[in-house]
Amino acid sequence: MSTAGKSSKKSPRKNGEKPKGKKKVEAPDKKNLMVAGNGALGQKTLAFDIGGTGLKASLLDESGEIFTERVRVDTPKPCPPSVLIHTLKEMIARLPDFDRVSVGFPGVVRKGKTLSCKNLGSDEWNHFDLQGAIAEVTGKPVAVINDADMQGLGAIKGNGVELVITLGTGLGSSLFEDGRIAPHIELAHIPFRKGQTYEQQLGNKAFKKVGKKEWNERLEKAIVHLRTLTNFDKLYLGGGNAANVTIDLGSDIEIVSNALGMSGGIWLWKDRDLSDGRQK
Q1: How many other β-carbons are positioned within 10 Å of the β-carbon of residue 259?
Q2: To 5 degrees, how large is the angle CA 211–CA 237–CA 81?
Q3: Model-wide pTM > 0.70
Q4: Per-residue pLDDT reduced to its tens digit, 229-277
Q5: Contacts of 250 (CB under 8 A, 6+ apart)
Q6: C-alpha to C-alpha distance for 117 and 139, rounded to whole angstroms
Q7: Which end of the chain is more exposed for a tag (fewer CB within 10 A), N or C?
Q8: Would you place residue 280 in the very low, low, confident or very high pLDDT band (cuts 50, 70, 90)?
Q9: For residue 274, which of 195, 183, 206, 208 has the smallest C-alpha distance?
Q10: Could you tell me which residues come within 8 angstroms of residue 136 by beta carbon, excluding any fewer than 6 positions away?
Q11: How far, CA to CA in Å, does 280 sit from each of 111, 142, 271?
């Protein structure tokens, strides 16, 4: 993300809190939705969360609340760009109309282009214009960001140094200072211990291989390393395997809902520090 050197700050917000806006409505089943007494929902955002195991899509209202049922399908294996775009079109057909799109991608993203992705099983993701491809099929403005960064935007409070780690198919990470996102670092592929990376030690394959007890022992060691590396004021643990965390967590570590990977998408349109990846 090209946000280094920015000096503006977000107002501190509580974990999962969204910007003030319209009230949440429950899973409506028709298009051009209205909220009783409040008029239109305003700008409706399609949040698309791309994971190595599952693809998820929902619509967000102006406040970042999910107001439709979540559409989820298994991630095709392999999943090159053409397959992903085709699957997204099928998922969109099951949702109401929307005005813009926020995308969380499991790899490095620069100005809407994916630089690489190890968990989708295709080299075609190297330097692929995902933002342009989705804009072409939807006809809507599109913003693409790393998936852990998108979840982090939904989790952080905007106070001090906040680190977000997602524990899922792989391992994702995002780092913030006073609400400003740092340039993305693929922590997952940095050497950790015993000749293996963080992802090799803590990804879902490792969890299934070594079991919950040893996996948690590895996580505990990783947190010590990450504390030394970042001096975080707060660490958030998300992703599907966060539910398997059994180690004692201090007051500066919190497990957060995986749904934040969707609702964090609202900040791609409301946060002026997030110019990278936004379609102008």
Answers
A1: 18
A2: 85
A3: yes
A4: 999 999 999 999 999 999 999 999 999 998 898 999 999 998 655 544 3
A5: none
A6: 25
A7: C
A8: very low
A9: 183
A10: none
A11: 11, 9, 14
